[in-house]
């Protein structure tokens, strides 16, 4: 924790003079750095074959000030390769993440293509046009629209305050999936709106100062919704949204009371999940690390060179191996629900993941249990079952459940248990 270096008297004076500067950032202390080793090895020793993995990792490593030049060069190359390969086909949020990663504390000799910000403006406009044409549904989602605004705000892109005031009201349905507030989405929106608010206040963007008022209210409401999702053990939403939530709470400490959030408790719970392998996917590791080091995406600074003196530990072992399948077998109940429910019992090796179950069921009956998937930065994403495709414009997707509860991991990661009731449900996101 910070603040403790000042003389007690000075600290006391400061506290009484400027109470509004309360600093709610808690970062992992040096003695606990060893907890972070698995996160770093997961990030360093992975393949970065898919999507925005490399951008997520580069951004994360730069924010925490990881000292390893050769690794950084390698990551920059992968992000650039992905940009070249996907080019105009990147989604708006993927481009935003690419800009944040390449532009963060760039060294002066590195080039940075300023056309990327122009391209992002166009992609953000396309999101808004899609909302107007399709019942308020963006091309992607509000997590990505928030990333867009954040990147435009930090990299002097053009965006309209009026549009932001119009589309980012906390009541907007896009903050919700199936009636459930998405903490990741809310957290990213708080970061984006905080950046916009700061830009209005210090005159970086031409706007009536009055416009900061609704944005102020949005931040306040979103912070309330985020804190409402705080669990007894300190996690906010689930383990994978907690990093984004922490970042949002770091930058918005004027909007809640000190007793409303116990940051060290949240941090402790997250640290304990690391050795259990909760963050064995590079994207998951990259998203939690900045918050643990007391950093936020608002710390991305396009004008200053990278600072490396922050974080200096060396990594030896590769990340935790994926769960090994044991020779014993287990039986699970699997069903696909569309209008009707189609069920079967499937036998798989102990240690299998949801996807293995789906593949077994598909072997039983291709017509009923046939499915398609796409690789993404979080692993395989299920795009269709029984020929029925998920569709963003209709806000439909395939939801994974166990015992009726939505899973917090994907088909490629969730390890199934003997006797479990697994379900795949065609789901409409409209609450
Ligand atoms: C938006 C979103 C969705 C949307 C995606 C479609 C859309 N309209 O955009 C919907 C609601 C459909 C969705 C579904 C699911 N999601 Co989701 N989702 C997100 C969210 C909030 C933002 C993703 C994003 O746009 N990222 C930014 C862009 C730039 O990165 P991207 O990699 O290109 O994004 C794509 C992928 O992330 C993919 N995607 C989204 N969710 C998931 C989940 C998995 C497992 C995979 C493989 C891919 C995937 O869709 C994105 C758009 O194309 C993230 C939050 C986060 N922290 O990342 C959660 C998140 C990625 N989702 C998660 C989960 C668990 C799921 C589900 C498995 C939930 C369930 N029980 O069914 C399902 C996926 C089931 C399936 N069909 O395979 C977890 C993943 C955790 C983990 N360790 O695997 C996250 C981190 C949320 C959380 N805190 O739990 N999701
Ligand atoms: C990396 O990629 C290679 C080939 O594409 C694959 O064989 C290997 O299993 C991958 N490693 C990891 C950790 O994903
Ligand atoms: C730096 O990164 C490289 C991979 O690019 C890795 O082989 C090396 O072990 C890393 N060095 C340290 C000190 O972690
Ligand atoms: C972009 O997507 C279109 C349509 O899906 C595809 O035809 C095209 O080859 C893609 N271009 C690149 C560079 O991936
Ligand atoms: C920036 O936005 C303003 C107002 O929306 C618009 O008038 C101007 O043309 C935009 N500039 C660029 C370069 O897009
Ligand atoms: C960083 O770690 C390396 C190797 O452990 C060490 O040689 C170096 O002095 C450290 N630098 C700082 C600033 O702590
Ligand atoms: C499910 O039912 C709805 C209305 O009851 C119908 O419109 C739709 O076509 C059905 N879908 C399938 C896949 O049978
Ligand atoms: C499956 O493996 C776990 C350990 O990984 C063990 O605790 C459990 O009893 C096994 N179940 C069966 C049915 O073999
Ligand atoms: C798959 O299920 C359908 C519907 O129950 C049935 O008509 C078909 O014969 C089954 N196919 C196989 C190969 O069992």
**CATH architecture field of the largest domain:** Alpha/alpha barrel
Low-confidence stretches: 1-22
| Oligomeric state, counting identical vs distinct chains | single chain
Structural class: alpha+beta
Number of strands: 10
Name the average pLDDT. 88
Tell me the Rg in angstroms. 22 Å
Overall geometric form: globular
Q: What is the spatial order of strands in the main beta sheet?
A: 4-3-10-8-9
Strand composition percent: 5-15%
Distance, first to last CA: 40 Å
From the 3D structure, determine the CATH topology of the largest domain.
Glycosyltransferase
Number of domains: 2
Helix content: 40-55%
Sheet having the most strands: 5 strands, mixed
Top CATH class of the largest domain: Mainly Alpha
Ligand types: cobalamin, 2-acetamido-2-deoxy-beta-D-glucopyranose
Give the SSE string: HHHHHHHHEEHHHHHEEHHEEEEEE
Number of helices: 15
């Amino acid at each position: 924790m910070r603040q403790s270096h000042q003389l007690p008297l000075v600290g006391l004076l400061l506290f009484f003079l400027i109470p509004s500067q309360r600093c709610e950032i808690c970062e992992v202390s040096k003695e606990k750095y060893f907890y972070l080793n698995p996160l770093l090895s997961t990030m360093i020793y992975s393949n970065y074959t898919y999507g925005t993995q490399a951008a997520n990792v580069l951004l994360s490593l730069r924010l925490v000030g990881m000292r390893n030049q050769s690794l950084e060069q390698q990551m920059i190359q992968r992000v650039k390769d992905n940009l070249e390969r996907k080019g105009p086909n990147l989604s708006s949020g993927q481009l935003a993440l690419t800009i944040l990663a390449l532009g963060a504390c760039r060294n002066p000799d590195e080039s940075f293509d300023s056309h990327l910000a122009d391209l992002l403006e166009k992609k953000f406009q396309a999101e808004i046009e899609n909302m107007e044409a399709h019942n308020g549904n963006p091309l992607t989602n509000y997590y990505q629209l928030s990333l867009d605004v954040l990147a435009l705000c930090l990299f002097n892109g053009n965006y309209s305050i009026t549009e932001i005031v119009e589309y980012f009201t906390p009541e907007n349905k896009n903050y919700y999936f199936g009636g459930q507030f998405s903490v990741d989405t809310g957290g990213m929106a708080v970061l984006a709106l905080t950046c916009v608010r700061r830009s209005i206040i210090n005159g970086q963007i031409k706007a009536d100062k009055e416009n900061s008022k609704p944005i102020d209210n949005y931040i306040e409401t979103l912070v309330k919704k985020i804190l409402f999702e705080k669990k007894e053990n300190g996690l906010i939403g689930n383990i994978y949204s907690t990093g984004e939530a922490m970042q949002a709470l770091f930058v918005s400490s004027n909007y809640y009371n000190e007793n409303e959030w116990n940051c060290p408790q949240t941090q402790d719970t997250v640290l304990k999940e690391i050795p259990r392998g909760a963050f064995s996917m590079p994207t998951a590791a990259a998203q939690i690390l900045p918050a643990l080091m007391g950093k936020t995406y608002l710390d991305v600074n396009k004008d200053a060179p990278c600072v490396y003196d922050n974080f200096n530990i060396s990594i030896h072992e590769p990340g935790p191996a994926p769960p090994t399948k044991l020779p014993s077998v287990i039986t699970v109940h699997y069903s696909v629900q569309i209008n009707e429910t189609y069920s079967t019992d499937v036998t798989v090796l102990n240690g299998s993941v949801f996807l293995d179950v789906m593949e077994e069921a598909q072997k039983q009956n291709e017509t009923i249990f046939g499915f398609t998937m796409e690789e993404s930065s979080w692993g395989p994403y299920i795009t269709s079952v029984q020929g029925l495709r998920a569709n963003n414009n209709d806000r439909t997707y395939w939801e994974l459940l166990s015992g009726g509860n939505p899973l917090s991991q994907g088909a490629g990661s969730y390890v199934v248990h003997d006797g479990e009731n697994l379900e795949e449900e065609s789901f409409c996101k409209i609450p």
